[in-house]
Batch of 4 targets.
Target 1
Amino acid sequence: MAYNLKEIIKRKTRFSAGHRMCAGCGAPPVVRGVLSAVKEDDNLVITSATGCLEVSSCIYPYTSWKNSSFIHSAFENASATCSGIEATYNVLKKAGKLPADKTTKFVAFGGDGGTYDIGLQSLSGAMERGHDMVYVCYDNGAYMNTGTQRSSATPKFADTTTAPAGKVVPGKLQARKDLTEIIAKHNIPYVAQTALLNNFKDIHEKSEKAIYTEGACFISVLSPCPRGWGYPTEMLMEISKLAVDTCFWPLYEIKDGVYTINYKPAKKLPVEEFLKPQKRFRHMFKEGNEWMIESFQKEVDKKWEYLLAMENLTNNDK
Amino acid sequence: MIRERLSGNEAVAFAMKQINPDVVPAYPITPSTEIPQYFSSFVSNGTVDTEFIPVESEHSALSACIGASAAGGRVMSATSSQGLSLMYEMLYIASGMRLPIVLTCVNRAVSAPINIHNDHSDSMGVRDCGFIQLYCESNQEAYDNIIMAVKIAERSMIPVMVCYDGFITSHSVENIELLEDSVVKDFVGKYEPKHYLLNPNEFISMGPLDLQNYFFEHRKQLADAMTDSKKIIEEVSEEFAKISGRKYGMFESYKTEDSDACMVILNSSAGTAKVVVDKLREEGLKVGILKPRVFRPLPYKDLTNALRNQKAIAIMDKADSVNGFSGPLYSELSAALYSQSISIPSINYIYGLGGRDVKETDLEEVFRNIIKISKDGKVDKTTNYLGVRE
């Protein structure tokens, strides 16, 4: 069935209002975008790493998680925790202790700190073992829950509280870790990168594929953070679109090793368009710092060229 | 009843086969590695229904245990030393979430320097993590305690750690009496959790952020449950005696009825100590030993009552607290004695660290010292390092 936002938003919600995430935060629409892809008749168990999402969505005695069960145990172990749940499901199902006609799906959420950094080992283990689960990284490019410390997902030159742009150090010196590629190299059936865009078609369709593809699947979603990035809260969707239109955040998927770029901007915007509205990149626009923008653009171009080449290579290989 | 000859690890793996848990996540570490090895062969050969998760670390092993237990499964794992240290964060979470996981800890020294042999630094290092801790002298006790641990954990909703000595117990083959499969199956029964993630009739959220208004009360609930678990351990031990003929208490005392000098000692060294007691008794010396089985919860009233009439006590620690005072067992038992207004001259020995052999002659030296103390009441030095080269 073709995607229809009006129909999709009628589905029963699994993440209710009343959570305490900031205005203009990308994480709640990311969660809704992903979970709306779970069929209404299916059960769902959600695992969350420690982070903004967890501390703002489940504060005793309240929970925003509806029509689903939810667990948080620690920061670095959402994947391992989820793998234990999935294993239990398999054994209880086989033993006839769960209804035969009911399917349960497993989705784990983690921020970039809990995924790229401290949770990478646990994630790699779960992906390699091939549990039937989807890991969703909502990537806001720093440790936002503790106050914007740099992570290995932080873009080059970004101003963070542990790699601040100072007089001699111009923010983070290193480029981002390419986690989507790292997870793709686990040879799992489905890996995708998406963002909050337009009518949420891209995130919905990728989530649906991931959730209903057997085996371990991974989705990386750009999740803008107004406090860490320094943009006006109402600019959430616009900043997301700029990330995609500048090719800073390409939308692509890797299905059984075959790359598909889901969106190729007719006019690839210069990366300044994405950087300029954000306070974390403000220093890059000072006189004499043009080299930083050039360097950033070079990184973006390199990755984009790589994806085009991979798409070409893996499709011609078929 | 089946008579067999098994190593400690074989006995525990065999018990796990009979228990047939839903999920076993595990990671190899000497000297507990054999447990997941033996157990995964049961999985591969279809003799158990368990999902075995060969995780990539002990942190993930316990995390997967937590997920599996929260999901509604009966869950077991095994580890040692550095593995238990890596689990540290998750041990507190397992107990804080009240998940009845059974974890075998095959006791081994903790680095540095690295050492694969036995002492109790690992389990003693996590003594405040909210797990029930059972200590075992022999392969038989390891087998029996593992089976009882399942019921104790599920009734108390507190995870249980079963501890026995690396290599000495884990790898030594001893005669052992095993129960029939069906007897174990009936004894542990079916696991029927009240609330669990996979319950198709109820949606729950677990592991919330718990702030100033509630956290303290939730921790108190855990503390109360730990206190109450003593009664559950007693009940389960009585039930176990009915199926096995083997009766377990909070501790085992050996020839303490009329003794003047008593040694308190855990795990396999208690076996050596019993031999020494017999020998010294032949000389007419009134010595005995007390071997705690349950260290968490600390059965402080039972232990202190049992020691009340001694004239001198040696408390043996196969772990060092490195705190400028004493080992952990000494600190806790002497505090317990004080709390009951019992004042007995006592001495602490740190012994056998990193698998240093503890011989009959070593323990004899300790007994002769407390016999002397029982007569003159003088303790020259509270904490001593047994047999260490200065």
Note: Residues 8-316 of chain A form a domain with the Rossmann fold fold (CATH 3.40.50.970).
Target 2
Amino acid sequence: MTTDLAKPTGTTGTVVKDSAGYRTFRWVNAAVLILVAALVLYPFVNIVAQAFSSEGYINSGQVNLIPRGFNVTTFQVVFGDSMFWRNYRNTVQYTVIATAIAMALTTTYAYALSKHKLKGRKFFIGVAVATMFFNGGLIPNYILISELGFRNTLWAIVLPNAISVFNLLVMKSFFENFPSELEEAASIDGMSTYGVFFKVVLPLSKAVVATMLLFYAVSFWNGWFGAFLYLDDPKLYPVTVYLRNLMAGVTSGTSIQGGSTDNMTQIAANVQSVTMLLTVLPIICLYPFLQRYFVSGVMLGAVKQ
Amino acid sequence: MSLQEPAVADPVAPVAAIAPAVTGPTPKKKKRPRKESWVAHDGSVIPAAHLSWRTALRKDWRLYSFLVLPLLFLLVFRYVPILGNVVAFRRFRPGGSMFGDEWVGLYYVRMFINDQQFWHAFTNTVIIGVLTLLIVFPLPIILALMLNEVRSRRFKRSIQTISYLPHFMSVVIVAGVVFQLTAVNGTVNQIIEAAGGQAITFMQEPSWFRTIYLTSEVWQTVGWGTILYLAALTTIDEQLYEAARIDGANRWKQTWHITLPGIRPTMIVLLILNVGTFMAVGFEKILLLSNPLIYSTADVISTYLYRVGIVSNSISYATAIGLFEAIIGVTLILSANAISRKTVGASLW
């Protein structure tokens, strides 16, 4: 995807020798890039180090790269906290349902919009694109959700962001480039539009579907503000709101169920690190395998043939 | 595939057609005719655009059925809230109509014009917005240029993979990272103390907020921001570099005269988009990071609006502020677009 243009070797094959200055530059460049990568990674390393350190070292400011006074007390307490698990389950549930709804709406809309024979196509595209530039704003959305009776229900979380226009347009472009011969052949064989879409187009669009699925799933997994705004019952919170409340001091580490008084100072010292670690863990674990899909998704969105 | 002039005369410009070869299993692509035609019973050909709605619906009702739910979604969750902005000019009563009960004209607009706190938040928003454009926007370009000079593909790919990671973190995690690193016993204070300084209570000092916010913003976005530039870099014609080398241009001159102009369209499109979101500066992150002690620098329009509308329940007043913010946003993006079309010939649509 990224061919190296900086090669001093011309297409003719003649090797141009780098100047001494340029060679020095390349070493400095590599060193700076390594430094950038280290700085990007450091906060994650620090979270892990704090999560496994004992309170004495944390409170005296001695934990940075590696855990000191290794212990897992806080992990045991957080694992034993039924509210944490409940909220974690909520996150999984919200992510799965919201992603399913988003995919259903986005793929069908994108497929219809990709058909040039669709009368009114320009209008239907415009209706979606306009919402990229105009949106109702926080308060009107808040009133709407309250008015619909969605507060303190799952719907407030899984419905309002069901179509991302960016994802929609990416899928539309993809379907537009789908070989029409395949669809025509299928419809000559007697398949209806539904049959063509579900049995021919979707199975052959796995790559783009997977990419969109990931985009949606990550954004719903990471979401917190909708839940924070519309849910009042702690039992309904996703884990991001659980974490937010820990950070804001609404719930302190010591009020977590199962936190006995002997462990209080230890929990107070690193309950945030532990919760953060547990929240990002699924994404970090999947990241190495999935990141190329994310990148190709962005490329799909921006690249014109 | 190439990123050619993302600015085209199409409403969906930044998101243009794609090559199926990137992800699709389709080997070859055949350009379909733009408009399909229908052959009527008597053999005459009717172009799609001339079909009556009734015929179109009867022929393609299955296709139209795909539109129903998404359109309903857009209507309810996107267009109704836009109309809901009318409460900025009407009195809203809890339990009453969501569009307000009676007209009050510009009452709420006058209210925020005379509101000191609003103008305070406005100033903070502009300052943070300008700093974001000046500092956060150019850094991905520099990083992309640096990555472009790397010859080892594995090394380059590793750096890229690592630098994208923060993009996938929830803003709650980003806030948590900020709190942890800036805590009195956190890494930053460890360094300050090791250098012989005094620990700073960063999150209680208004003077530190902008630095902290911008740093976290850079951390989260710099890597991901390089993707589009790196794609644009691959489209620059190799022959240009060769010609420049023959003319005796060194690496620096090649970068300045070939590479930078080559990615200019991408830069402009992203700049316009950034200008458009200028007023909405990282609302969720600022909401998580700020506290009353640092409102003097941290309070922006969106967080002020949140407090007025949701916390203090002044619905109409907050809507008026939100509408004002949105109008500025749309004005900014339209003017940035117009200016760029006039001066450099690139625009979003």
Note: The longest helix of chain A spans residues 264-302.
Target 3
Amino acid sequence: MHLAYPAVLSVLLFCTGLYGVLARRNAILVLMSVELMLNAVNLNLVAFDVWLSRAARDALHSGQALTLFTIAIAAAEIGIGLAIVLAVYRARGTSDIDKLRDTAETRPGPGDDGTEPAAPAMAEKTEAAA
Amino acid sequence: MTLAASSHGFLSPTGVEVAFLLVGIVTLGAAVITVTTKQLVHAALWLVVALGGLAVEYLLLTAEFIAWVQVLIYVGSVVVLLLFGLMLTRAPIGRSPDADSGNRWAALTVAVAAAAALVWVVVDAFRTTWIDLDGAAGGADGGSTAVTGASLFQSWVLPFEALSVLLLAALVGAIVLSRKAAAEGERPQGSTNKAPSDKGKAPSDKDTAPSGKDQAASGKEGVR
Amino acid sequence: MTTTTLAVLVPLLPFLGAAAGLLLGRTAPGFVRPLAVLPTLLSTVFAVLVALRQGGGQAIDAATELTPTGSVPVELALHLDGFAVLVAVLVGVVASCVQIYSTGYLRDDPRYPSYAALISLFTSAMLLVVYSGDLIVLLVGWEIMGICSYFLVGHYWETPEARAASLKAFLVTKLGDVPFLFGLFALAADAGSFRITTVLGAVASGGLDHPTLIALLLLAGVAGKSAQFPLHTWLPDAMAGPTPVSALIHAATMVAAGVYFIARLLPVFTASAAALVVLAVMAAVTMTGSALAALAQDDIKRVLAYSTIGQLGYMTGALAVGDRGAAVFHLLSHGAFKALLFLAAGVIIHAAGTNSLAAMSRMRDLRSRVPDAYWTMTVALLALAAIPPFAGFFSKEAVLGVAEHAAAGEGAAVPASAGWIILVSGLVTALLTATYATRLWLLAFRGHGAEAPDHGRQPVVMNAVLWVLAVPSLAFGLTMGLLPDWFDGHDLTPTLTTSVLGTGLALVGGLVTYGAWRHTTALAARVPLGAVAAHPEADAGVVEAEAIASHAPAYGDVAYAPDPADPGRLLLGPLHRHAAVGFHLDAAYTALFVRPVRAAAELVRFLDREVVETYVRGAGTAPRWLGTAVRRAQTGNVQTYLSVLLAGSAVLAAVAVLVATRGA
């Protein structure tokens, strides 16, 4: 079998997951998309492992071992992730990612306009003092 | 290797390749529906299809142990866990029009660009590489449980143990997160939750406690 | 105490008095007067002691280097020769008189503590200049005097004249100080030291590479400080300060510093014939011009100010012909009688309630109101006019004598042209000096008209000081036999030719003025004129400040009064109008310097406002717009951030692959 088939499938699955991570609003759907991306990587690992072990370049089965590790870590990740999502949901009443905007500056309101005329006035004052 | 590669062209696919291609199309379709459907529960169910399809692909790649682990963990526990999560966060059943956020087009652009770049690179790099699935080593299947187990406990035993510590840490972390959230929910009564009455609140608090346990259980399952 | 210790104490005591006066002025008002007078008196006593011990013998030198200061060392050095000790005595005596006089003159002034402290500091700075043997230390005293004159001239800062005059005094003297500083550096670079003895040694051995340049640079500073043409314009305006300050500045300290400086470094100047000729021309223009201007002034203090400029011209003239003995002789006698003139003028202004001669000439019996001032001022004016046997006669004849020597070609290394210039202009100025002295006396004390207002007796201290100063004005000339021992040894006795010429010219000037006055005085009764600031109970300072402030509104100008009864008007004829305003030099400076500077300032202001500020605003606005744009991207939506991040990494990956494949 050509290696290109699993590799291209892996790429497409990965990018599908990527789209999901970027486009989905619900945090749990984002976690699902993350799972898709992880699986895409797993497929890649398995495909390359098969290729390399058949070509007798790799006797350790590192790809399959790493796949197992990835699966375990993905399980842990989904547990922690869901716990966080639930905690957020309990605190905020929502699990929509685009409503969690605490890192943003508060919306520029009248204060922003207020400083604009103040600045030239102050410049005038310093000039008069000089 | 080069000799083998030269004798296998793209236009003369083998049976395995055709099967891989068909299952791959199904998998990809399911994945696309997962990230685009407007019904949240359906998304989880389509994820099952996609992950199952991947398990089949593993089988086709002769990695049978991985395939079964995939079915066990992903289809068996992760998706169940996700469904629990959906329920606990009161995800609407049925079509929800706002399942996608506003930057869908930006996301699509990024995803397509990334896909184009990666596909181009991968195809450019591996278009002539051939995997000899028929097995030069005769019956000794590379992905069988025996071979995998041997390699795992001979060559990979140290990372394996380290991974078990990681899983323990994840387990403890999940418990701490859940407990802290519970304690928080008890003290400022209803100040954070939008529950209309105390009656509505009490079950939700109760729900969280089992979910934490459930996650812990799933973590353990992952180790096994 | 050793002579050196005494000499150190002489400048130090007034300085400590000034510091203490400034510190205690508000908290302990009772100590202010003792703190002002006693240190100055004590330092005068010490100066006399130093002079006696030095005795005109070998110069005493002492130096200590506090810290290494680079290539050319700066040392705290004393250089006590006959000139230094005698000038220090003069400074001490005049400063003491001024301090004592001020206690009466400004007895009710709220700013007296700071005033007295500044006078002490001024005195201390002048004494430092006199005693210092190091040019940089001398410069320190020189500049302290500059800043003190700024504060003291502006003592009545409520009046715009005083504010303008203090600024003008400061700026004009600084204008001279900049080339002065360069000159000092050039001198030190050539001589390799700031020590005066070393410098003079280098000059004697011909070690100066650029004597003319150095001398001319130093001359600029001297012209600023000693009010020589063309930097003399600050001195008449400085009359806006209190009269004791004028006395101090004119008689002993500030203006004397420049002459004294040249006297100290005379070999540097005689090393360049060109510098001597320039000095001679400067002195000649200064003398004759200022004497003409003095004849046209209406303000009694401005007459005296222009006369100071003229007498300083005599001193620089003596220096231009290479005789510092005569110059310092005239400096000493002039210090005595000019201090007396100013202090007496203060008394007269207080008594008359005006500083205008035109107004005084319409007062009867002013002289009987101020008998002490009348007699002492008469003595001082006779000394000024160089009538024998008063002090001014001997010193002025000494100057004329050396000029005659130089003109005859007897002076070594002095061009005969310089001698002729000084001799002729000195004789002309002698005539003019007698003329304006007579005019001043006639107008002030021989007035007709209404009875002079009764402002009460002046404080005893003010009158006592006048008599103290009258003694040297009268008799200082008799010391001419002793002085050559203290100076360079040149004979200072007047020669017959110049004596007859000078005295004759002075008498002619006085008689002509008297005749003119007899002719014009009939007019005085017909033209009523005069404004009197009557404050019978206030102290003299208040009266003077009001008189100065009201002169321009009453007469149309600070210096000028439209009085047809003025004999000066008759004598000068059409020249009077120009002489009254100082030959339009201020107007010329305004046109030449003030206007261009103002225009340049306007231009700079325009450039700053309209051009530079536009860039500044642009530099502020562009980042603000950019910030607003960037802030729009800062939505807080993690998915947006991640999208941008991944888009960027995709682009980077594509670029990397492209570059790698191109390279392969």
Note: The first strand of chain C starts at residue 60 and ends at 64.
Target 4
Amino acid sequence: MSAVTDAVRIAAPGNPVTQSVRDSLVVAKRNLIRMSRIPEMVIFGLIQPIMFVVLFSYVFGGSMNIGGTTDPAVYREFLMAGIFAQTVTFATAGAGAGIADDMHKGLIDRFRSLPMARGAVLTGRTLADLVQTALTLFVLAVVALLVGWRTHTNFGEVLGAFGLLLLLGYAFTWVGALIGLSVRTPEAATSGGLIWLFPVTFISNAFVDSSRMTPWLQHVADWNPFSATVQACRVLFGNPGVSPSDAWPMEHPVWASLIYSVLIIVIFRTLAVRKYRSATA
Amino acid sequence: MTTIPTTTTPTTTNPEDVETHMPGAIYAEGLVKTFGDVRALDGVDLDVPEGTVLGLLGPNGAGKTTTVRCLTTLLRPDSGKAVVAGLDVLRHPNEVRRSIGLSGQFAAVDEYLTGRENLQMVGQLYQMKAKEAKVRADELLEQFNLADAADRTAKTYSGGMRRRLDLAAALVVSPPVMFMDEPTTGLDPRNRQQLWEVIKQLVSGGTTLLLTTQYLEEADHLAHDIAVVDHGRVIARGTSDQLKARTGGERVEVVVHDREHIPTAAEVLAGFGKGDTSIEDHTRMLTVPVTGGAKLLAEVIRELDARGIEIDDIGLRRPTLDDVFLSLTGHVAEVKDEEPGAAAGAAAKDRRHKKETAK
């Protein structure tokens, strides 16, 4: 078995940034192959937001007062930015469960024993999740158009709104990564990744007019990073229900959304990579 | 390998090592690691000369896996020194990772990737070029008898195939130093045999290997040297023969046909034995340490026959590593819980079952 012992040449350590990018792409490719082999996951990920679109717009539409009208058509246009934003944040749970599963199966140990860039396993995972999120958003946008959602701005602004949504989703996958590395089982990562999303997405302007909330709750909603992205999307889509609040994130939603997302990425990426370095299955 | 009847103590080093002052391919000194108030490693010393196999033998929770994790950069010890392939593990972890292969307790392969995709990915993460990784994956698939299953997802593989794939992944860069943590745990006897063959071939090519196992037979089979670990310390070290010699050599085992004959048989054995006779009532088995070999065995048989004791089975037994463990630690290779807090009873039961099936 001489071939086993014939030393295979390993490339000398190159530029750390190049290595990091390359390793991240190798891991992202792995996760994308996985996704293509478990299409159920992608399909379930699609059904849920579509169900929300249909349920919210037909059940709630008509009883929701948006900008002084209870016209269901107005609510439907109002709703979509909220559903889009909620959908991208749900990618958190997937990222968390995936990473917890890798830990559980010993794959994280394998990766950690390889001479690869330290953050690449997590970056690769979050990048693959971003691809899935983009796919989900695309399908969801088509469904939204079918139920009557329209944009009233130019193409660039609409694209900008989707860009902000993807950035928010990417930021939240880093929160998921940290959760996945912190819990013992993939099941815990799934529920742990979802539970906190309910208050975050509901104490916001996503589904109701936040100006009708109790003052302290409205305050929370106005400063909620999630609300900033929703508000930014409504502005960029030209959809109704833009909050008249004078809280800074509501007055400058695009900037607020950008700043919040970048902050979340910086903070949670740092924490997650640190956690990864000492991860023990 | 010559068997020097020696009183090896854990701290005694090989004469060659003293002469050259060269640490082995794997070297550890005073490794300590605590988890909360559990002292998982309590000063582990190891020295594995290049091209040899060290079997790290001990029950669950003895510190085997923690030792491997410290040596493979997965865990940072609280104190102590570790050198692998001539590199300081604590100071140059990334360089160490280039020189080692690790095959863990679980087959760490992505089950949704094909065998080929798994190996290519690992190759690329070892910083091989995509094309090189591809060529290498093909070679390994061929070598490990996985060529036919190369393009099936690992999910469809049998347990033995997954282990082989895992081992192949650890060998992608033909690392000079290999670590295998309980490589055959959970495998059926046939697959275990196959994996042993693979490991033997690998070692014959000059790879230095540290192998942990709770199967005494496995250490006996594969390792040049054995280090017995218990409670986070190496409590004995030597070749299999040296360790066996320490436990006092041979024993006579008798199974009597009739339970009533046990006291008489015990009396007979006491006359020949060099120590206490142990009696297992339910199996009607008596065991006594002896010296004198086959000649003595014949005498024992004659004496038992003269007293009218019918025997079902009798034999001269050389000590197994189980006996070694018993005499070193005062307890059998008992099963303890790896993780504090887990249901101890259930886990112990499960392990016992595993052990039985392993034999």
Note: Confidence is low (pLDDT under 50) at residues 1-11 of chain A.
